[in-house]
Amino acid sequence: MNRDRMPPLALVLTLVGAAAMVAPLVWTVLLSLKSNAELLQDTGAAFRGPYTLENYGAILKGDMVFRWLLNSLIVSLGTTAGVLALSSLAGFAFARLDFPFRRTLFVFVLLGLAIPEQAVILPQHRLFAWLGLHNSYPGLILPGLVGSFGVFFMTQYFRGLPRDLDEAAALDGASTFQIFARVLLPLTVPAQATLGVFTFLGSWNAYWWPLISATTSDRFTLTVGLASAQANYAQTNGLGYLMAQAVFASLPILIVYVLFQRQIVNAIGGAVK
Amino acid sequence: MRTARWQGLAYVAPFLILYAALLIFPLLMGMGLSFYRADLFGAKVWTGLGNYGRLLSDPVFLHALRNTFKLVLLIVPTLTALTLALAVALNRRTRGAAVLRGVFFSSSVLSVTIVTLIWRFVLTPDAGLFAEVAQALGREPLPWLSHPDLTIPALALTTIWWSIGLPMMLFLAGLQQIPSDMYEAAALDRSSRWTTFRRITLPQLRRTLLLVVMLQTAAQLQLFGQAQLLTAGGPSGASRPVVLFIFEVAFVRWELGYALAAAEILFTLVLLATLAQYWAARPREDAR
């Protein structure tokens, strides 16, 4: 990293860029703090007082947003827990155990890295209709569990752990599962954190699958719920209210971002190596 | 030790069963169904390559394909150049740089619904931020979301704002791996900033650059939510990308087989973009 100061022109350009990044966010917050009646006449009123918290009050008084928030939490946490469990088990086996077809199966799993969502989502939709899983939590969670990245990532991490640990534990009479659960798993916490944060972010922001799988508003996740509110905003409670919903809905993920910033940066750094 | 040899399969089985049932099976089922005239409810008639032939002469699909290419061509080079410049500018050990890195990455954690909600009221000519600015400057607000020449740039702008964080971070990580003695040598030679960038930084970032271009191309070929939510593909298809076409054919017209044929074509394009990156990133004999 450079220690020196930025050249003045670069500094000015970067600050202009930063202002362009922040301006839409500030605008959103300002709109959310205005009364809907005033915005109906002139949205420019957002630049002047009086500001009010009435839109946030209206959300807190009871709103589908809470239900959607809860659904998003259940789906994202369920997906994250599932991915961590499945990837750790498979990653341990691929890295440490010898079993028939191990190499073939690993290549088979790697193929999944090249399969984009749009290539499978329509047949998945039909499959889940047969299974009667639409509008259910398992229906929203299961497609998030089949990504190959987690298995690949955990396999690499287990491979990097020293072999002496397993051998010492095996000499002490530990079973394979004990070696996995007691000896190696605790050492993978940093990898679990990285994979967990990314899975959570991805699941929280997923749009296409919940859009077609959850069709009743009590099963909407936050992304789909806000999309439906946005589509017919003219008939709903007004612009200020809509923007308050957007701000309210961004808060959980911004909190996750601030708390786990380091994991996110480290994980992205790892991708380049 | 016979049991021990098979034991490993028990550890990979939970993932493999779900993976085979919910990813590989649907993939193959989709490929198979793309040769049928099939609706969303189960009726199907074999048509061979009929769906593919129809797509290639369907002006709506071809328009969507052109739109997707336009979006990729607008977004990927701009985003790559912008994030590379940002990474070079912000690759310093100061508090200010750290804060700015956070600012540029923050939009990436928002969902597409929130991003479009924000940008709808930035772009819309009757109530948007751009309109307020235009009025303050005494100009007519531009109809970003309804003029056929402006909707694609509007989607590109929104997407660039949303996606700037990840490639910037990738470039920053790439910059960290350049050995500092290379820069010290350049400083001894009194190389200008631009020469140093061209002779050292850019060649050293080659792999990262290819990674960013490949990831972004694959992502933007599949651009969907922004177009669906901001412009609904309009006006009259001027901003409808391929994935929105697939979505509409499947869930508005219920022609599953036809939608799947379009999805397979797009899948091929995404694969080609990925393979092109591996080909370009292969170790070269003439490279030192």
Write structural notes for this entry.
The complex is a heterodimer of chains A (273) and B (288). Chain A has 273 residues and is an all-alpha fold. Chain A has a single domain (57-272), classed as MetI-like (MetI-like fold, Orthogonal Bundle). Chain A has helices at residues 8-32, 36-41, 54-60, 64-96, 102-111, 121-130, 137-141, 149-159, 163-171, 176-184, 189-204, 208-213, 222-231, 239-259, 261-272. The model of chain A has no long low-confidence stretch (mean pLDDT 88). Chain A contains 15 helices and no strands. Chain B has 288 residues and is an all-alpha fold. Chain B has a domain at 56-110 and 164-281: MetI-like fold (Orthogonal Bundle). In chain B, 72% of the residues lie in helices and 2% in strands. Chain B starts with a helix and ends in a 7-residue tail after the last helix. The chains are: A mainly alpha (273), B mainly alpha (288). Chains A and B meet through helix 1, helix 4, helix 5, helix 6 and helix 13 of A and helix 1, helix 3, helix 4, helix 5 and helix 6 of B.
What is the residue-mean pLDDT of chain B, rounded to a whole number? 89
Report the strand count of chain A: 0
Average pLDDT rating of chain A: 88
Strand tally of chain B, please? 2
Please write the string of helix (H) and strand (E) elements of chain B: HEEHHHHHHHHHHHHH
Helical amount of chain A: 55-70%
**In CATH terms, what is the architecture of chain A?**
Orthogonal Bundle
Radius of gyration of chain B: 24 Å
Largest sheet of chain B: 2 strands, antiparallel
Instruction: Please give the oligomerization state of what you see.
Output: heterodimer
Distance between the termini of chain A: 17 Å
Query: In CATH, what is the class of chain A?
Result: Mainly Alpha
InterPro entries (chain A): MetI-like (IPR000515), MetI-like_sf (IPR035906)
GO biological process, one term (chain A): transmembrane transport
Family (chain A): Belongs to the binding-protein-dependent transport system permease family.
Membrane topology (chain A): Multi-pass membrane protein
